[in-house]
Design goal:
With about 180 residues, this protein is mostly helical. It is built from seven helices and no strands. Helix 2 packs antiparallel against helix 5 (about 100-120).
Length: about 180
C-alpha cells in the first residue's frame, strides 16, 4: 500500500539523521584539540631541522635527575619504572636525532586524523575508516625512528587503549553517518 505519510521507522531515521549527535560533537572537539596540537607542533619541526647537541644533553640531564629523585625518595621503588624512564629517554633521543622525519610523519598522521574527524562530523563513514588509520599510525609512529624492542609495552598499551576507546566511541555514531 502506498502511503503519503512516512512510517514511524522512516520518520525516526530521518529525524536521527538530521540532527548531529551531541556525543559526536564532543568527540570531534577532543580530536581537533589533540590532532590540531600535533599538527601545529610538527610544522616548525619539518622546517627547522635537527636540534643542536644542547637539547640532547638537556634530555639526558633531566632524565638522570628524575631517576635520582625517584631513587632518593622511593625506597621501595620498582626498577621497572626506572627502565621505562630510560626507554622513554631513548625514544626521545631517537625522535630528536630524526627530528625532521618524525615531524613530517606527525604532520601527515595528524592531517589524516583531522580529515577523518571532519568527514565524520559531516556525516560520512569514510571519516571513520580514516580515523582508524590515523589511530593505528599514531600507535606505530615511533617504529619509524627506533627499534621496536626499545619501546616499552606500557607506552603501546596506554596509547592503544586511548585510541581504541576513541574508535569505539566514534563507532557508536556510525548509524548517523551515511555511505560515501
Amino acid at each position: 500500500m502506498i502511503s503519503v505519510h512516512p512510517s514511524d521507522d522512516q520518520h525516526s531515521n530521518n529525524s536521527s539523521r538530521s540532527k548531529r549527535p551531541n556525543g559526536l560533537f564532543v568527540l570531534f572537539v577532543l580530536t581537533v584539540i589533540n590532532a590540531g596540537s600535533q599538527l601545529f607542533t610538527s610544522i616548525p619541526g619539518v622546517f627547522n631541522g635537527r636540534p643542536d647537541k644542547s637539547v640532547f644533553e638537556a634530555v639526558k640531564i633531566e632524565n638522570a635527575k628524575l631517576i635520582n629523585e625517584i631513587k632518593k625518595y622511593g625506597q621501595d621503588i620498582n626498577e621497572d619504572w626506572i627502565d621505562i624512564i630510560r626507554q622513554m629517554e631513548k625514544i626521545t633521543l631517537a625522535s630528536l636525532e630524526n627530528f625532521q622525519l618524525f615531524s613530517l610523519l606527525l604532520l601527515v598522521i595528524s592531517c589524516l586524523g583531522l580529515y577523518g574527524a571532519f568527514k565524520m562530523f559531516k556525516g560520512y563513514k569514510l571519516g571513520f575508516h580514516l580515523y582508524i588509520a590515523y589511530s593505528f599510525l599514531s600507535l606505530i609512529q615511533y617504529y619509524f625512528v627506533i627499534s621496536p624492542s626499545e619501546i616499552p609495552a606500557f607506552t603501546l598499551i596506554a596509547n592503544g587503549s586511548v585510541s581504541l576507546f576513541f574508535v569505539l566511541m566514534y563507532g557508536r555514531y556510525l548509524y548517523w553517518m551515511k555511505e560515501n
